[in-house]
UniProtKB/TrEMBL annotation:
GO cellular component: late endosome; vacuolar membrane
GO biological process: regulation of vacuole fusion, non-autophagic
Keywords: GTP-binding, Lipoprotein, Nucleotide-binding, Prenylation
MF annotations from Gene Ontology: GTP binding; GTPase activity
Family stated for the protein in its record: Belongs to the small GTPase superfamily. Rab family.
Entry keyword Lipoprotein: yes
Top-level taxon in the UniProt lineage: Eukaryota
The keyword rRNA-binding belongs to this UniProt entry's keyword annotation: no
Full-protein residues shown: 12 to 220 of 251
Protein name: Ras-domain-containing protein
């Protein structure tokens, strides 16, 4: 964004968290917003959001963070939860390879449901590899593998089957390629990397404006 974009910048940013059931989406939100962690699993039904105000580059921003159900049977509440999102967080569990392999379909599903205006390949995504606090002997997804996937997605433009917005202009190679998809190895349990991750999210959502 250039200087003229500054006046158009939103101070409320909508962030949507998606990923398989049990990867820790609700826990990440609870830790980040309320500094709490609960060992007991409670399925999210539909979706819910929490807000948190942060200061970024001398600017006050309210993050409205939506936590969606990972379990398919609880996902019936439709597109309203995805619409208007400024950033999407794709979460997997570093100790569960399947949850990592499902990220591509979560990404596509998000783009289909949210149908963000403009070029979908440029929509900001951030990846969280959660439960990094668990002993390394349980690790199923190496950081190297995750980094490689993030780079691949960014280069490929990622979203197979998601049509570009009709009439969108500027579909040159440069504009269709999302330059980066940052990866954060997080722990909702121990509060690892959450502040950094959400600051990056806020910055990316700003730049998209
Ligand atoms: P759905 O609501 O079904 O989509 O699940 P979810 O992704 O919201 O998962 P949730 O936050 O409910 O966490 C699932 C389980 O993993 C709970 O028992 C949590 O206590 C545990 N958990 C979540 N995050 C972490 C973490 O960072 N470390 C560890 N060790 N456990 C975690």
């Amino acid at each position: 964004g250039g200087g003229a974009a500054a006046s158009r910048r939103k101070i409320l940013l909508k962030v949507v968290i998606v990923g398989d059931s049990g990867v820790g989406k609700s826990s990440l939100l609870d830790q980040y917003v309320n500094s709490k962690f609960n060992n007991h699993y409670k399925a999210t039904i539909g979706a819910d959001f929490l807000s948190k105000e942060i200061v970024i580059d001398d600017r006050r921003v309210t993050l409205q963070i939506w936590d969606t159900a990972g379990q398919e049977r609880f996902q019936s509440l439709g597109v309203a939860f995805y619409r208007g999102a400024d950033c999407c967080v794709l979460v997997y569990d570093v100790n569960n390879a399947r949850s990592f392999e499902n990220l591509a379909s979560w990404r596509n599903e998000f783009l289909v449901q949210a149908s963000p205006p403009g070029d979908p390949h440029r929509f900001p995504f951030v990846v969280f590899g959660n439960k990094i606090d668990v002993h390394e002997s349980k690790r199923q997804v190496s950081e190297k593998r995750a980094v490689a996937w993030c780079q691949e997605q960014a280069l490929a433009g990622g979203a197979a089957g998601v049509p570009a917005t009709p009439g969108a202009t500027g579909t040159t190679a440069a504009s269709t390629h999302n330059s980066s998809m940052p990866l954060f190895l997080t722990s909702a349990k121990e509060g690892i990397q959450l502040e950094e991750a959400f600051k990056t999210i806020a910055r990316m959502a700003f730049e998209k404006e």
